[in-house]
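Final report, results section. Input specification for complex C-07:
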Amino acid sequence: MSETLILTKRWGKKDSHTLANSRADGAYQALEKALSMTPAAIIDEVKASNLRGRGGAGFSTGLKWTFLPKDVRPRYLAVNADESEPGTFKDRYIIENDPHQLIEGIAITCYANDIHAAYVYIRGEYKRQAEVLEAAIEEARAAGILGPRLLGKSDFALDIFVHRGAGAYICGEESALLESLEGKKGYPRLKPPFPAVVGLYGKPTIVNNVETLANVPWIVANGGAAYAALGGGKTGGTRLFGVSGHVVRPGVYEVPAHYNMKKLIMEDCGGIVGGRKVKAVIPGGSSSPVLRGDEIDISLEIDAMKAAGTMSGSGGLIVMDDSTCMVRALFRIAKFYAEESCGQCTPCREGTSWMEGILHKIEHGHGQPGDVEKLAQVANNIGGQTICALGDAASMPVQSFVKKFREEFEQHVRERRCPYPHPWGATRSTREAVIGPVRV
Amino acid sequence: MADPLVRPSGLAVEGLPAEGVARFDRELAPILKRYPEDRRSSAMIPALRIGQEVFGYLSPAVMALAADRLGVSPARAEEVATFYVMLHPEPHGRHLVEICTNVSCSLAGGEEIFDRLKAKFGLENGGTTPDGRITLREVECLGCCGTAPAMLVDDDQHERLTPEKVEQIVGALK
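Structure output:
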């Protein structure tokens, strides 16, 4: 197994966020190389790398870039730094520790796609991260890397702007992000047309996640084939997995894209606090179908996760021990989607509140026979019936929790109470969070 | 797109102090440069954020000011002000204390911290202390799951919370 670190290689080094230190460590050398290549050659390398979108959908990045219509200008790049899916906390550390890697990735992407303006849409809650990124962009501009002449050499102008959101999960959905960036409420657009054709201000727009773009410099420097070889299956490279919940060492881990989930949780993260057992893992952000503790000995690779009946999504794993109440956990997730539904589509606007209400009843001892069935039914009537993926995101956890832990839900109804003395888990003490380049 | 029927007047808005309006315009000016000239309304969220920083909250007059400067109707400002949870169309306390109770935080004690604060101040979710010092809110995932539990105090992240640490941070608010 390769020991290569791509995304976290500068993390933890002194003042790794400054231009001077990251440049001394090799930043912007890949941009220099890119400027000596043709845009088409860069896109070919990215296609060959099997780089897939790290925001959650896992779509081929190189392929996405080829969807831009040939003759429409201007084109835009919208960088998705909204990172609002519960359990996801990786992009912020890229920005905090190595913003120039992101800026370099943005610059190469813009050069390869003839884009002269990029907007980083960062969630409102990341105020400090937005400040770090703005300072880094300013440093790059002052050094002549950005601005009228890319890297001070090329006859190619590029400006990068930070646009801070104001608290709305839905704005991580790419078309809602664009609406929000245009100064409106975040209502997702009906697709097609996709943003690559009709995006920001009606112009062709690439929307890529922070982690996705931060990989681009390495791919240009080392070649697409080398990147593909680091991963497995049809997913190239390493990935950042954020592990939270009842593990001994929660944090962000950079491992090959096809790493084993059980190994990540039980070895890298030190297993479960107090030596308890894993009861459930939400493997890719709160919307991904839950896995039982006996189902986690699988590859984290995107297609392997799909084959296992779930999704790798945003790479945020939430681990729950055997003292955790599944009804309580699902109730909180349902509450989140009810709160964050934008209200545009009826099945989602009404259905998410119904699911929250039914789960509240069950968890608080007021469940009635048939409620669990009704809950599953509501979920089935949201998924696939809405403009954007939030409807699916809200129904997948409900469907999977009920399927995998049905007896626990029925027990709540039967006993008319929550049987767990500590619904969020009995052991929560003495955890040391590790954030950094942790590898085995 | 800017509404062609609505042009920025550049004038003071009725009901707002002139020095506040001047500060608003001063802070908004550099932000407008980020967007194409005919797309000034892209700056709606930043404009409203400046508005609530300058004037305390987004009263109808502040929303009208933002709309005027961006060349759109006040309804567009209100649409945005009421959609995003970090924009405040209603007055709130001097400090906003916002606790995440989503799954990763609650697995680490977030819900308990929220319950303790509610009990300490005798508030429900969204309530403000009688002295106007603190507004307490439950919020959704803050992206601090690995360093849970977490909260925002006036937009600043605080992570790896314990009940004692929360007492200390909240107690120090003036």
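Chain A is about 40% helix and 10% strand. Chain A touches chain B through 58 residues (CB under 8 Å). This concludes the modelling results for the funded period.
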